[in-house]
Amino acid sequence: MLSSKHYQFLIAVAIVVAMPLFMKSGSLASEVLIYALAAMACNLLLGYTGLLSFGQGVFFGLGSYTLGILLTRLPISMPLALLAAVVMGGIGAAIVGWVAIRQKGTYFVMLTLAFAQMFYFIAYSASDLTGGDNGLMDIPRKSLTLGGQTIIPLDTPWQYYSFVAVLFLIVYWLLRRVCDSIFGRTLLAVRDNEERAAAVGYNLRLLKLQAFVISGAVTGLAGALHALMTGIAPLSAAEYHTSEMILVMTVIGGTGNLLASLLGAAFYVLLGDWLSTLWPRWLLILGVVLMIVSLGMQGGLWGLCQKLWQLVGGKKSNEEGDGKAAQANAKGGHA
CA 150, 159, 163, 245 torsion: positive or negative? Predict the structure, then answer.
């Protein structure tokens, strides 16, 4: 029998496979998975560790700039540039986390927000390195080659989507293993009751820092993939709005579940793409949607799906029970 975790992974695979069948834009489909990676990383902090971080844009921007700088200025292969972006995202998260986890609640949030603003102004000021307000332009998207032969072409949007899809499923599986491990369950204990977890003997700062590093590494990968897709590492990748957007995706999808992050990212990106064609101020409508989620759907889209599934399953169980009761009454009448 497959567990619910295996079913969720199969659902993620089904969504990834089905997206090219229902979407016309390969770039938009890639954007969904890229932001789903960032939302899953944020979910590890918020849903599993209980840390509300506004510093995700720092790691996203680090990933974008690292890949952009390496590919435009050094003769380095794209896989190595992606790996460097993951490492830089993790290092940036280690620095932010090492300082921020020393405080709790509002002060923790303020520290992550301060780091986000500081990184933005550093990226803006270091124009020789980051391109300043214009960002890093003309980032090449080279196909994966071996011995001069192209192994995985990345020329078209759908070819690049296939590459992103494979990376997304690998990262999803790895994060699923992390969340299901003793480490992941310990993070849940820290989220639910820090005092009790500390009394048991857990090193809270070390656990939170480890969660930060993992989250930053995955977010750095998402930022690098986004820069590779667009060919630009923009200054907007390091803006406060990026952190806010990733956090909103996480909340809309539902905290404490990785598959929910995919739902939240798809909902945000696709709804935003559709509304932007109807009204330039579409973020106002998105704000209303977020209020509805906050007031009536605390479990997010994933919680809503679970309620609908339980409702349908309950009706089926009642119908089967009524049918069995009717058969039993019929047998009793014949007897």
Answer: positive
